[in-house]
Every structure is written in structure tokens, then in C-alpha cells.
From TrEMBL:
A matching Pfam family: Pyr_redox_2
Family in the record: Belongs to the NADH dehydrogenase family.
Protein name as it appears in the record: NADH:ubiquinone reductase (non-electrogenic)
Gene3D superfamilies xref list: 3.50.50.100
Annotated signal sequence range: none
Boundaries of every External alternative NADH-ubiquinone oxidoreductase-like C-terminal domain copy: 379-432
Key words of the record: FAD, Flavoprotein, Membrane, NAD, Oxidoreductase, Transit peptide, Transmembrane, Transmembrane helix
Alphabetized GO MF terms: NADH dehydrogenase (quinone) (non-electrogenic) activity
Protein species of origin: Eiseniibacteriota bacterium
Entry EC no(s): 1.6.5.9
Listed InterPro entries: FAD/NAD-bd_sf, FAD/NAD-binding_dom, NDH-2, NDH2-like_C
Catalytic function, reaction form: a quinone + NADH + H(+) = a quinol + NAD(+)
Amino acid sequence: MDRKDTMHRVVIVGAGFGGLAAAKQLRRTPVDIRIVDRRNFHLFQPLLYQVATAALNPSDIAYPIRSIFRKQSNVTQVLMGDVASVDPERRIVRLADNVESRTVESSTVESRTVESRTVESRTVESRTVDVGSSLEYDSLIIATGATHSYLGHDEWELHAPGLKTVEDALEIRGRVLSAFEEAEARPERASSLLTFVVVGAGPTGVELAGALVEIAVHALAHEFDRIEPASARVVLIEGAPHVLPAYPEKLSESARRQLEGLGVDVRTGSLVSQIDEQGVTLDSGERIEAATVLWGAGVTASPLAKALGAPLDRAGRVVVAPDLSLPDHPNVFVVGDLASIPGVPGVAPAAMQQGRHAARQIGRDIAGLPRTDFVYRDKGSLATIGRARAVADIGSARFSGLPAWLAWMAIHIFFLIGFRNRLLVLFSWAWSYVTFHRGARIITNRGPGPDVD
């Protein structure tokens, strides 16, 4: 019998931060890993807002999944597609009918000793997975993340795109840049066209608001004849009393001062009651006319959560046991934004810790050792507001301004995957800092702009 057929089979659904961390943690464990993701690349979401605001290109913050694991011999297959359902009783993952198979390339046959075990690196033959096929597993890790939540008003999505995918970022970029182009063509509408509303003052909302001001004041300065880009108005709306409500109050207040110093109109303690193509209405009755509204106010777990048949919390996240497994199915782990874990924020470092913990439990199962409970270790939080403006909460240190901005840049460069990506992002940031220019201002998908030759 082929050794591969007798190995413990691990299926990982989702190649975000949690899924990647789990697969890498298993690199020295005698398992057969298969990864399923609807994309063929890993996306570094913390920098997605910079794609949306023309500072970076999508390829700068994305890296092919197969390239990530080309030297990890126990990752035997990467599948691009959606998961239709999971059958925990039969231990089967059913794939949707749009799945394409791309088996990762590995090196030629060689053996090496790692931690007293002989690990064989082998060439895996390419195989095509039939549409609607299934994957059997011994252990399953689900890390499909979250999507936008419009708080019961799904109709708002048409007028206020969120920011979770590359497509979202490119749509937002198109809307923002097209607003300036249309204002140049129709200066009588410049007031509403150059008003940008960001709903939600978490890290994404704060970063978007600051970047929008920098586009208007610096990147587009002196490039239009009939409008003044610096006259653009950016309104940031937050229902909580403070921006960055999950951060310490001192840093939240610092962030607000920095935002207002940039010229952002910050509205805390305000809720949106209506969004349409002309703008937003607040719960106070105030109307803000704006051609561009961006959403960063809420997320909900991915639809796969319901397919598991496990208990869910109010946000649609899966309630997990202390070891991150399903209470009734201990061989199924849920990590990242999909998992409901009290006191654990929905951020990349938490997802990575959860992914590694789930992988360790699989290793302990194989070794016949008892499992351990997940313990989240808060390594701090950072949020950037603009050029030399940021806030940081790292351990016992809380600081803001230029030092926080430099720390934010260093940490994000460190966690980017791929030397090329790190180099390109670092160069783009350096160029932008020196020149105030944003090099990714090409409109490839038309936003709300006019048909003007």
C-alpha cells in the first residue's frame, strides 16, 4: 500500500492567515495536507485599503498559494474553488462544481531527517478533480473568514461597498478616482462628488479616511483645471463614542486628533439610518450628500458556518470548544474570524495563533497526547491614519505619531509573504513619502464616472 494512502489526511479550507499558519505548523508532521481556497493566492488583507486608495497594486499584497508551499512536501494538493458542504459524520468535504485542481509542484524524490523522523520529498503527479467531487479527511481545519455585514440592510451594499477582497478594493479605487474625474467634467456637481463618507471607524475605516484625504490634498494636487481636489470632504461615521473603539481610550483620542488634523470630519455617536446613491442619512435626521460611500462598520462569518450545523453566535460565528474543535466533532477545527471565542479579536495575529494551535492538536492526536486549550496572546494593535500618523498599543507601550507609523510599516513589511512583495511595497512607500505621489491610479473598472472622451 502507498505510504501516502495510510497517512493522516488533513484538509484545510481557506488559505488566509489562519489556514496558512496551520499548514506551515504541520510541515514536520507526518500528514497528507490538501488546501482548498476560492482563490489561487493568499491576500495580505491589512494592506488591502492601500490598493483601494491607489498606493499599491493587487499583486503587491498577494502571493500564489502553490508557490508558498512548493517546497513543503506534505502539502500534496491545492484546489481552487468553493466548498459546498461539510459532512462531519462521514468526514467528507463536498466541493462546488467550479473547482479546478492544481497540484503543487514539489522537488524530486529525496529523504531527510527532521526531528528523528524521515521525511520523503516527492514529485506529485497532476490530477484533475471532477466537478462536484469530495475530499475525505481525518482532520479538518476550516478558516474561511468573514464577509461584510450590513446589519440587516443588505440593500446598502449596492451603494456602499465594503473592503474584503481584491475586487472590492478595485471597485473602491474606481469609484474614488472616477469621482474626481466626473467632478472635473461636471463642476456643478463637485460638492457631492467630492464628498466621501466612510461608515465605521475601526482600523479599516480610519485607514481609508486618512488615505482619502491624502489622495485629495497631495496625490491629485495641481492635476485638475476646473476643480480643487484639496476641497474634497471626508466624513467618518462611528456609532460608538470613540474612533477605534477596541483600542485604549487614550489612543482612540489620539487617533481622532490626528484624523481631524488631516481634515477628516469625524462623527462619533452617530448611526446611519439610510444609504442610497445620493448619500447617507443619519439617525439624527441629518442628510449628507455624497457620491461615494464606503462601508467598514460590520462583518459576519462566511456562509460555510451555517453548513456545519454547529451552534452559532449572534454574528454567525461557530461556537467552538476550548481546543478550537467542534464540540460534537473533535476532528473538525474552526479558526480565525469564523470562530466564536470570547475575548479574542478578529485580527490576523489571532487567526495565525489559532491556526497554529489547531495544527498542534492534530499533531498531539497523532502522537497519542492529550489536547491543550487555546490561549490567546495579545501582541498589541496598530492602526495607521496617514503619513507619519498612527497609533500603537504594544505590550505596556502605547504611543502615536511618527514612531507608531514606523512601527506599523516595519511590522507589515515583516509579515508580507515574498521578498519581491516586501521590496515593492517598501519602494512604493518610500517613493510616496518623498514625492507624495500614488503610483496605482489607473482606473480599470469604471466607477460612477461619466462617459467622457
